[in-house]
Structures are given as structure tokens and as C-alpha cells.
Amino acid sequence: MIYSFKNDYSEGAHPNIMKALADTNTLQTVGYGEDEYCEKARELIRKKTSEKADVHFVVGGTQANLIVITTALRPYQAVISADSGHINTHETGAIEAGGHKVVAMPGENGKLTVQNIEKAVAEHTDEHMVQPKMVYISQPTEIGTLYSKEELIKIHECCKKHGLMLYIDGARLASALTSDINDVSLCDLAEYADAFTIGGTKCGAMFGEAIVIMSDRIKEDFRYMIKQRGAMLAKGRLLGIQFYELFKDDLYYEAGMQSNKTAMIIKSAFLNCGFKLLTDSHTNQQFPIIDNKTMKVLEKDYLFETWCATDDEHTAVRFVTSWATPTNAAENFADRLKEITKGE
Amino acid sequence: MIYSFKNDYSEGAHPNIMKALADTNTLQTVGYGEDEYCEKARELIRKKTSEKADVHFVVGGTQANLIVITTALRPYQAVISADSGHINTHETGAIEAGGHKVVAMPGENGKLTVQNIEKAVAEHTDEHMVQPKMVYISQPTEIGTLYSKEELIKIHECCKKHGLMLYIDGARLASALTSDINDVSLCDLAEYADAFTIGGTKCGAMFGEAIVIMSDRIKEDFRYMIKQRGAMLAKGRLLGIQFYELFKDDLYYEAGMQSNKTAMIIKSAFLNCGFKLLTDSHTNQQFPIIDNKTMKVLEKDYLFETWCATDDEHTAVRFVTSWATPTNAAENFADRLKEITKGE
Amino acid sequence: MIYSFKNDYSEGAHPNIMKALADTNTLQTVGYGEDEYCEKARELIRKKTSEKADVHFVVGGTQANLIVITTALRPYQAVISADSGHINTHETGAIEAGGHKVVAMPGENGKLTVQNIEKAVAEHTDEHMVQPKMVYISQPTEIGTLYSKEELIKIHECCKKHGLMLYIDGARLASALTSDINDVSLCDLAEYADAFTIGGTKCGAMFGEAIVIMSDRIKEDFRYMIKQRGAMLAKGRLLGIQFYELFKDDLYYEAGMQSNKTAMIIKSAFLNCGFKLLTDSHTNQQFPIIDNKTMKVLEKDYLFETWCATDDEHTAVRFVTSWATPTNAAENFADRLKEITKGE
Amino acid sequence: MIYSFKNDYSEGAHPNIMKALADTNTLQTVGYGEDEYCEKARELIRKKTSEKADVHFVVGGTQANLIVITTALRPYQAVISADSGHINTHETGAIEAGGHKVVAMPGENGKLTVQNIEKAVAEHTDEHMVQPKMVYISQPTEIGTLYSKEELIKIHECCKKHGLMLYIDGARLASALTSDINDVSLCDLAEYADAFTIGGTKCGAMFGEAIVIMSDRIKEDFRYMIKQRGAMLAKGRLLGIQFYELFKDDLYYEAGMQSNKTAMIIKSAFLNCGFKLLTDSHTNQQFPIIDNKTMKVLEKDYLFETWCATDDEHTAVRFVTSWATPTNAAENFADRLKEITKGE
Fold first, then answer.
1. Helices (H), ranges, A128-197
2. B101·C96 Cβ contact <8 A
3. CB neighbours of B214 closer than 8 A, spacing ≥ 6?
4. What is the distance, to the nearest Å, from the Cα of residue A62 to the centroid of all Cα atoms in its chain?
5. What's the predicted TM-score (pTM) here?
6. Tens digits of per-residue pLDDT, D99-141?
7. Are residues C59 and C166 in the same domain?
8. Would the CB atoms of A128 and D101 count as touching at under 8 Å?
């Protein structure tokens, strides 16, 4: 039986979520997110972020990104992203389809730097070029790294200085919030960002992302944009029920902790067996660099993603864990890896 | 306790769907609709429609409409719709946001006529105007009426004659397929349309629409469009599991029948009490015209939608039933209505 | 030799314009409208409209319309137009290609009424529909009629009341300004509109439209939009030179007067010969209704446009004059028409 | 008196063009490019390129680029460009506003390489990414360099191999065609490209670009796209008259030769005085690297553009010549430069 570390959406929903959906299944509510469950979930999230936040729910992350960004920008404005940013690489040009250029700048460990934001701003001088107006970062990044609070504040200040909005994609935010090296809280995100998302799909929910908006410019008429982009769920309550469940008793943090715990077991396993890491991730995505022979052996028992060749004989691969990864699945993997490498 | 006839998405999912989702919850699958459940559901739907069909799943109806239409049309091409068509009135300009004009023509009983399609074509003569290239109809329509097979064939022939694609929005298709006056089958839709949807959200599923594509022009690279518009569900299996459940044992038809059965009870109740109907619907939406005094009384016990004033003292209202409407809820309503009107 | 009354862009530019272009041909200037000629023209137009106006020049009318409208509206907002409005019928869906629905309302004599603006607003109630945010009218309209100052003020007040911007397409404004029944001045346009255009192409210039903007919302970063839509002329001075010439000595009014004078000769000719008019136009477009036999005879000597059949034997046709129509061309036509109708 | 080498659109039109416009000024023609002058110009260009070409005229280069590219691509498809490509840097995101990502790859001397095209293709593997479908190059490039016939053929073959269309931006094509190192003819462009432009604005015309289309996919309904993007000139004949004049007696080549001749005088002047060049351009743009002291002195008598600092004391600047640059203006500059550098 093959076990999959391919991604963090291999299973359904956390049992508590499944139970909440089952328990409420036959109740009647109004549609489109105007029901009491959504309202309760919104209130809860406001309490944990900021009373001034507007909170909306949509089904998926690309949806969330494209709606926030196309709402925030005028037609000639652009969003600055690390070149590895999800909006730049893995959303099939959704932002461009919405009319906006993604100004991609080299990242450092997957992170956008103040220096590169400044550079992007400096390079766009007049009306013959797009006008950068927003910065997009991911927490954690696409390769599992984290912005520290200090880094976040510096980016925030750089944004203020240049009249840029700051948008943070939190698709895997549970893993960030509970990482052993993290010092950025939900309240910090609300303080330093103009908008951010709290990912549900990869953090215990069946599906769903919460969009938390601080900026008036983005708040205005946001429901029109949700509807126009086909993202207003008829049975909106499904999102409210899930996010209420995720936040009423810290289930969100539990989910993050389990994903990190199992990721750390896998990370240690690779390190202990003498492998190097592409990047030092303290979240639920790990990028060990392995020789191709070991890769072939591992592929017999495990699913994982090939990231990139690092030389002719080595490949960086991606192992992803989630709330659904049992501790013993990670431990079994660690044992198996030891066996394989000893056997060589 | 107020009972809602406001819409057909007031509850969650059919118990069979809930069970199927629970049963598969901890299984691991690959993402984005490439799992075995989606594949099985696609095969099943192909069997019931056409072996030549491409089948895709998305979460919502506006999503389905905007993706199909923006995939089918070149930038200067337009879609012809009845003025009451959902894409023209209730999707916040999603089609226009995708770059295309909706050429709205007067409908007859909510239905687009061959005559008006011909008129729209005749009025668009050259490159100073948009080029109509697709016809959009809904089965059932937004006011519950149905195209007969004969009408459908005539529209199909008109489309062929003028090089137009035909797209059918089946958001409430279960109700259409099981209506006592219906003679249009799933196979007919596949034969006469270039693409159509099989609505899940309003027909027993927790959420989801199946898009069935017959035309090569629309088939090509369709998954790119799904992804770009933010509609590719990470846990795509959720859609496959539901549609497999809906079609493996005719649950879809069961759902439609229950919605129609309860709608007919309500329709009879209004007719028996001497009320007129705005339109003679044989599906799950009923539009009785009631005096405003009766409306006030009914509003104490029931939720329903105000459709339009027909004169100073009368209002057409909308009652909607679904797979989730218990027969006795409809019967209780019929009794209550008799009481009220006798009491007057 | 056939004479064309087909449109008001059959010839090149007014001789004064040609001379101005020739006189400045070898001078060097900076590009993109930042030269001294454009600056002088902008100042002149500000003097004749409002000191608070921003003035920009583009080559064509569809360009002007699409840039103003896409600058003014957020993605979910719509523009209300008479169904006969140029943006609704003859711009190949340019506004929709820019992402916005044109909410088309029936016009009266080609004019949008306050009643229909109110109706459009009332019909768009929530986020499931587009949000009307701008009103588009043409002065003169597409069928040559004019808004009186009183009508303009009422529309302006209706717009203020509902938070709508007012945009006036002045493609044939010279003819409006000099019409015998006109009481709307350039200053009135600046006072009551949020933006309007002063058409050059059909009013003496070789090409070019001046966009006059009063609203801060539309003013902001407008040059970015001009550039992005491909409308920033490298040799921008060509526009400045022409508009300076048109307004420095009232050439614009002269052009309008000649077009109206010759149009009135043609109008009288039709009336004197017993023909009716589709609409009572006091500007440079005339729409006589003629029997098809007379039409055939006229077509031997004249080019004009077929507008619409009014019955099986009669057709409304369009005769257009311009600054370039010699008085005797109109007089000769009048003589010829008399001959033909007497001959019958 | 300051002389400008700032760009190649500082003056109006070549005297022959001015004469042709004046001579035809009062003639009546039909509009929108359907007149006899446009037809003659199209025939002439077909003779000089390919009998299978479709030829259209628009006013400006950004217009041409955005219309060709948005016509060619389906919504999820992208265009590959050198990072220095005009569409990537100086068109205010016009391509993205049309919905398409520009996949920017590092250029070599301003030129896109086969290797980088292959890399871009290889990096875009599935529907989570845009689909590259077109390659954009400029001849000459934005920094004056030229693709040789061999390079062009290799790019063409690479495009065929990967199902990519090839589009060549010829905004300064006259200078390319007449460069001393050029071996690419108009016929070659027609043979190896799917579409290309013949720039008029910078090559003798008052304004205008000819779009030459070889690919059926781009040919289809192209006039609809021209109109929708606001690029269909009412007095279309203005474009036909100019392009007929440019090609009937090789005026286009004359214009190119004069620009190159004067550019070579300036190039030699810098080389003779010991300056280096940023790039070895054999066309009408020259990029000498000068010390900042010399720059300051030159700025007293000449306008030219600052390109980029090469170190703290040196700056690459851009000198541009055109058909309108008198030979003695270039010679005077050479003399002046000698004076200045001797004086040091």
C-alpha cells in the first residue's frame, strides 16, 4: 500500500468538520453567506484578528487571490510577487486574465525582500509602464519558509512608504502559525496587511478560505466581486460552519501542529540519514535533496513530488504533511528511510 | 417555526451524499479531479449522455456558465440569451467581465424563441457590432418553464444554420428531467447542445455542477480555463464522489421527483384556493399571484420570495421546493393556505 | 459623378488644419502629448469649458469611450445607455471587452430619459446584479436629436441623486453646439457632466477627440489608461495642433455651422417634396422616409445610408453633411430631388 | 538651439506623405479602411511580402501589438518575449490588460534565443500554468540589434516544433531593412512569421503601422478585433494613402537609409572619440557609454535619452535618428563631440 506525501489535500475534512456538517445538514438557512453560521464564524475571526476586519469566505485559494487582487487594483496597476509566488507560477495566469501584470522579482528562500520591492518600484517610473500598487507574499511561502515579524514589519513599512497595499496568501497558514520558529500572529497579519487569507482547504476544512480585509479600498462592494467571479457559494453556510468549527476551539492550531509535528519527523529522518535540504523549512512542506537511486526505491512505497534536479544524480523532492497525516505514518517513513540508506 | 420555500439550496446534501463523503473521507487521492472517483463519475455521465462527451466538475453555476462561455467565444463574439436568462440578470455581469456581450432578447414564458434568435443574428451584420456565436438557454428556465424536445430541436437547427453554438444551463435539471410534461432526456441534451450543465447544488448534492461538452471547440484545453478562473477544486474528488452517487442509482431522478411532487402539491393548493399563476410551471418553482393581504398572513409562517407586483393589490411570489422538501411540509402548507383563504 | 452624403468622414481635414500640420511639420517636439502644442490646446479648451478640467487627446471616438468608461468603473459596475447608444450598438462590444455591462434602456427619440435611468437603477438592487455607476448619453444623439439644457440638468440631478457619473459623447458636438435649437454650451457640459468628449474627426479635424474630465475619480492616472489601451499617439502634437486650430478662432463652430446649414437645405428639400422624417433632427444627420422607387433613383447620383424599412414600400435613409459639404452640393441635391419627385 | 536625438517621432511626416495627404484631402471616400487607397496599399504590400498575406492598418504600435496578440491567443495562453521586449516593459501592461501573461525571458543583446524559448516551453508543463503559444520579437530590437536570417529561421523552426506562433514587431523596420548588416527581407518576414508589423510612425509616415498576417488563426475576423479595441480609423484612407506612398517608390527604404546613415555618423563619432558602446547597433538607435561630465556638456546642445548608469561615473545614453535627421545635423554633432572631448 502506497502512502502519499504528495500534498496536503489528499484526504477530506477533519472529523470535527465532518460532524459539524452532518449535524447541521437538514437545517434550513438563507443562502450566499448571509446565514447565522457565516455570521458567527465572521465574528469569531474578527475577534482573533481585528474588530475592524471584513471577513468573507470563498471555496478556493486561486479564487481568493484573484478576487482580492482584481478588487484592489485599477486596470493599469500591478502586483509585485516573488518569482516563486503562487500567483506567478501556479494559477494559470489568473491575475493576468483579470487584467493585471504580476511584476515578478527574485525571491530569497522563497521570500520577497524589501530591496526587491524597492527595485520594482524604482523601475516603474511613468505611464508607459504598469504602476505597482500591491505586494503579494505567502505565509508560509511556496517552499515552506516563513517571514519573521521583523521582516513582515519592514515589508509593511516599505509598502506604506510607496503607497503599496500588502496582501498575504495564507493557504497553509495553520502550519505557519504553529511552526516552532514562528513569531507572527493572526493579529500581526491584521495589523500589517491590507488583506490576507486564512486557508482552510489545507488546514483541516473540507474546502474554503477566509478572506480578511483591513483596507477600505478592498472592502468596498467586495461581495459584488465574489459573485461576479463565480465564487459566491449558494450554500454559503458550508463555509461558515467549517470556519466556526476551525476557530471555536483552536482546531485550526491543532491541525497546524499535527502537520508540523509529522513534517519535523520527516525532516529529521532525512537529516539523520545524511541528506541535505533544499531549504530549511519549519512548516509542513519539506524539500530534501536525494540521490536518484534512493528516489527510485522510495517511489515504490510513497507518493511525493519531484521538485527540481539539483545535479545529474540528485533531485530535490517535496514531502507534504497535513492535519490528516498520522504520526505513525511519519515514523514508519523515518524507519523505512533508515533501512533503505543503511541497505546501500 | 417558519418553513422556507425561499429556494432550493436551504439545506445541505442528500443523506446518501453525506454518507458517501463520510465513507471516503480518510482515503487518500490525488487532487484536482484526476482521482478515481471523478473518473468513475465522468464515465457514468458519459454513459447517460454520450460516449463522445467531455465531462468536468466545478463547484457552482455561475462558474460553470462563465467558464463555458469564455472558453467558447473569441473576444468579439457574443452570447444570445432571453432577457430573463440567469447570465443576463443574476450573475453580476460575469460574462461581460469575461469580455463578452450578452445579447438579450425578449423571452416567451422565460424561453428564447427561434424567431428572436434569428432577429438577433439579423441585427448583427458586420464588424462594427459584436458577432453572436452562442445561444444560452436554461432547462428549466428561470421561471420554471420547459423547452419541449420539438422546441429544442428547432433551436438546435437554427443554431446550426447560423453557425451558433448552443449551451444549456441545467442548474435545476433534475426537476426538468422528472417533470410530468418533460420529453427531453439527458441524451437529447447531448445530441442537440454543444455543452450543457447538470446541476448538483439544487438537485441533491452538497455543491457542484457537471459540465458536459460535446463541441471540440469548447473541449480543447478546458482544464486550463477551469484553473484560470479559480474553479479547479484541490479536493476534486468531492465533486466526483457526489456525482457518482447522484447517478449510480438514479438518485438524481429521485431528487427531481421529490422536488416536483411537492411543487405540484403547492401549485394545486394555490389553484384550488382560486389563485392564478404567473406562469404554468411543471417544475420545482411555482409563481402564484396572491393578494397582498394573503401574502402578509403567509409571511408569518413561511419564507418565500417576492417576484413582482402584478397590480396594486397583487404580487407574484415564488415558492421553491427541492429534494429536501418533505411531502408533509408541502401538504401542511396546502392545509394552511386553505385555512387562510377560507378564513377570509 | 456620385456625391456622398454617407457620412461626415468622407473627406480629409479642414484646409486650416492641413495648413497648420504642414507649417509645423519639420519642427521637433517631445512625444506623447507632452509638447507645447498640446499644452496650448489644453489651455484653450480649459478656458472654453472649465479651469478645473483635465484635457486629453486621443485619435478616435471608440477609443475615447472605452478609456473613459473603463477608467471610471470598478469591475462590477455598469454604464446605462439608450439602446440606440453608440457604445451599445456600434463599438463591437468594446465596453464589454473592457469588462463592463452596458445596461441598455429604451430611448425616446434617441435620448435617454430620467425615468429610464431611475428604472435601471431600481432594477439593480444587490450584488447578484451589476451596479449601475455611470450614464452615457450622446450630444447630438445617434439620430441627430439634442438634449436641451433643461433635460441635461434633470439627468445631471438624477445622476447626483443616485451616485452615478455622467459621461457625454460629443463625437458630433460641433453640429450640436451650432444647431438652431441648441441651448447647451461647452461650459454647461463641463458643469453637468463628469466627463465629455469634443469630437474632432467629424468636425473639421483630420482625426482626434478631446476628452474633458471634471471628476477626480476619472482624472487620476488617466494617462496610464490612454497608454495601456494603445491610444497614446507617439506624435501627440498632431492632436494638439489640430485642436488648437479648431478652437483658437472658432473654426470648430464654423465647421458645425456649415454642416447644419447644408443639413437644413436637405431637410427642407425632403419636407418640401412631401416626405416625412423619421425624427426631427436639427443637426447634421437627416433621416427622411422615402418610397423605395425614389430611393432607387437617388442611388444613381448619391451615396447615403439605408437606416431601416418603415413599411414594405418605404425606407428611412440617412443623409449626413459636414464642414466639407459645399452649400451648392446640398442645393444641387435639393434641385435634383424636386426634379425626381415632380417627374413621378 | 537644442537639437533632439531623443527619438524618431520628433517631427511630422516625410514631405512626400504630406503632399499625398494634401493632394487627396478633398476627395470623398468610404470609411474604415474600405477605400481604394487602402486597397492599393494592401496590394502593394502583398506584392512585397506574400500574395497570401492579409494586410490591415492601425494608427500605433501598442495598438498593433495588443490586437495581434489578443486575437491570436485563447484566454489561458501566453506570449514569450525577451525581458527587454516592448510589450513587456513599455506598454503599460496592455497585453495583460487583454488577459494574457507575458512570459519574459532574459535576452542576449536584446534578442530572444532559441534556448530561452525552449526553456520557457519546458517550464510550462500543465494546466496549472499558462500555455505559451506565441513568441514575440522585435526587428530591430529595442536596443537596435538585428536578428540575422539564420537566427530568424532557427526561431521559426523552434516555434513550429512547439506549436508556437511567431510575431515580429517592426516598429523601426525601415532601419532594419536598410542596415548594412541586415540579410532579412520583407519576404523573409512573411515566410517565417505568422504576423508582423511594418512600422510607419518612426519610418516616414505621419502615423500608422501595417499589420501583415500570414496565419489563418489570426486572419479570421481580424477587423472585429480592430474595431473592438478602438483602432479602426474612421478616415481609414489616411493610412492607405501613407503606406501606398511609402511603398510605391521605395520611400520606405529611403527613410530607413537616411536614419541609418546619420546613426552611423554618430556611432563613428563616439567610437572615434574613444567612447564605448553598450551594444553594437547597426540601426538608428545608438547607445554610447559616456562619462557624466561629457553628458552634462552635451545636454546643453542636444536632447537624448538616459538609458542606464553603467558605473558611478558613466552612463549609457540613447541617440536616435530618423528619416528626418539631416545629414549635417549628425555631422555637426560629430564635430561638436570632437571639440568637447579634445577640450577635456
1. 149-162, 173-177, 186-192
2. yes
3. B50, B52, B53, B190, B193, B194, B195
4. 10
5. 0.97
6. 999 999 999 999 999 999 999 999 999 999 999 999 999 999 9
7. yes
8. no
In eight-state DSSP terms, residue D288 is: E
User: What DSSP character marks residue B2?
Assistant: P
Q: Which chains touch D (3 or more CB pairs under 8 A)?
A: A, B, C
Nine-digit cell string for C274: 412631401
Triad B235, B239, B245: Cα angle to 5°: 135
Q: Which residues pair with D285 in a beta bridge?
A: D320
> Based on the domain organization, do C191 and C62 belong to the same domain?
yes
Whether residues D319 and D204 share a domain: the answer is no
Contact D74 B99 (CB under 8 A): no
Q: Least CA distance to A78: which residue of chain D? A: D93
Q: Same domain, yes or no, for D117 and D166?
A: yes
User: Rounded to a whole number, what is the distance in Å from the CA of C66 to chain B's nearest CA?
Assistant: 13
Same domain, A75 and A57: yes
Contact B270, B338 (CB under 8 A): no
- Which among B26, B59, B228 is the nearest to A92, CB-wise? B228
Nearest CA in chain C to B105: C104
A-C C-beta contacts closer than 8 Å: 43
Domain boundary among C251, C282, C305: C251
Q: Are residues D168 and D294 in the same domain?
A: no
For residue C175, pLDDT beyond 80: yes
C-alpha distance from B17 to closest chain A C-alpha (Å): 11
Q: What is the pLDDT of residues B324-338, one digit of tens each?
A: 999 999 999 999 999
- Here the CATH number for the domain that contains residue C244 is 3.40.640.10
Choose one of C251, C267, C284: the last residue of a domain. C251
How many structural domains comprise chain C?
A: 2
How distant is the Cα of A324 from the closest Cα of chain B, in angstroms?
Answer: 8
Per-residue pLDDT of chain A (344 residues; tens, 9 = 90+): 899 999 999 999 999 999 999 999 999 999 999 999 999 999 999 999 999 999 999 999 999 999 999 999 999 999 999 999 999 999 999 999 999 999 999 999 999 999 999 999 999 999 999 999 999 999 999 999 999 999 999 999 999 999 999 999 999 999 999 999 999 999 999 999 999 999 999 999 999 999 999 999 999 999 999 999 999 999 999 999 999 999 999 999 999 999 999 999 999 999 999 999 999 999 999 999 999 999 999 999 999 999 999 999 999 999 999 999 999 999 999 999 999 998 65
Where residue A281 sits, what CATH number does that domain have? 3.90.1150.10
E strands, A200-313, in order: 209-213, 276-277, 285-286, 288-291, 302-303, 305-311
Q: Which residues of D touch B74 (CB under 8 A)?
A: 71, 220-221
User: Which residue segment(s) compose the domain that D292 sits in?
Assistant: 3-9+252-343
**Residue A87 near residue A94, CB atoms below 8 Å:** yes
Closest CA in chain B for residue A95: B228
The tens digit of pLDDT for each residue in D248-302 reads 999 999 999 999 999 999 999 999 999 999 999 999 999 999 999 999 999 999 9
Same domain, residue pair C113 and C226: yes
What lies within 8 Å, CB to CB, of C241 at 6+ separation is C17, C20, C21, C24, C37, C41
Question: How close does chain B come to D85, measured CA to CA in Å?
Answer: 25
Q: Do A101 and D90 touch (CB under 8 A)?
A: no
Q: Which residues does chain C have within 8 Å of residue B129's beta carbon, measured at their own beta carbons?
A: 89-90, 92-93
Q: Do A96 and D129 touch (CB under 8 A)?
A: no
Against chain A, the chains showing at least 3 CB pairs within 8 Å are B, C, D
Residues of A in contact with D129 (CB under 8 A): 89-90, 92-93
Are A180 and A262 within one domain? no
Mark yes or no for CB contact D207/C13 under 8 Å.
no
Calculate how close chain C gets to B218, using CA atoms only, in Å. 20
- C77-82 and C302-303 strand pairing: unpaired
User: Is residue C330 within 8 Å of C268, Cβ to Cβ?
Assistant: no
